[in-house]
Amino acid sequence: MDTLQIVILAVVQGITEFLPISSSGHLILVPYFTKWPDQGLDFDLAVHVGTLCAIVVYFRRTLAAMARDWLTSVAQRRTVGHSRLAWAVLFGTIPAGVVGLLAREQIETTLRIPLVVACTTIGFGVLLWIADRRKGTRTEHDIGWRDVVAIGCAQALALVPGTSRSGITITAGLFSGLTREAAARFSFLLAVPVMTAAGLSELVSFASSDAVVDTRALVLGTLVSAVTGFAVIHFFLRWLTRYGLLPYVLYRLALGTLLFAVLYLSP
Questions:
Q1: N or C, where is the chain less crowded by C-beta within 10 Å?
Q2: Domain that holds residue 169
Q3: Interatomic CA distance for residues 87 and 67, integer angstroms
């Protein structure tokens, strides 16, 4: 991979990971349209680690409070401060972990095609639009166990390229009665254990493999996606109140339509 390809893909990841438009889908589409060779899942993982770093840095105070209160709640066997939110994040991660282990091969091969991305981009874009019409009033601290199950199962669907992890979890959060901002914040917090587990799993695979790893591409991609992702989190949360989610719905519908046109109308 040359420097231009590394930077463009890392910027794409940093932008699309937190906007509800699917980072995995865009990481498939960019090389498809540019005729670049597929960068592989090792690079995809590296730029996902970069956006994980962005989440951890941006929400460092909240995450620190959650960890502290969770440990206290375990020791004292009662709810303490942010411990309820911490438990919600942990249990909400389980469905994605189970599906990822059971369907990893299909996710890495069969589903990494533009047709799948086109279908999920439009389908889940429409679902996001329907959810955004609801006027939720609850915050992420009001999440109950039924909400955790619904949002956690929704996150498992995000393993299908084009779905958008942030998009589908925000959608589920809105259907659960959360405000836009609360749904987005919980979605971002929910990404931390999922990305961490995926990163550790891939690290173990690399350690036991003899495959050549492009260290320069992985390091540069991680840094660029981290910086880009941090900026996107900041502005996305500010723009939600003013613009809502309709711009992202329209983008998804336009992108999906374009993909179908390219796939079926081009000679």
A1: C
A2: 3-264
A3: 10
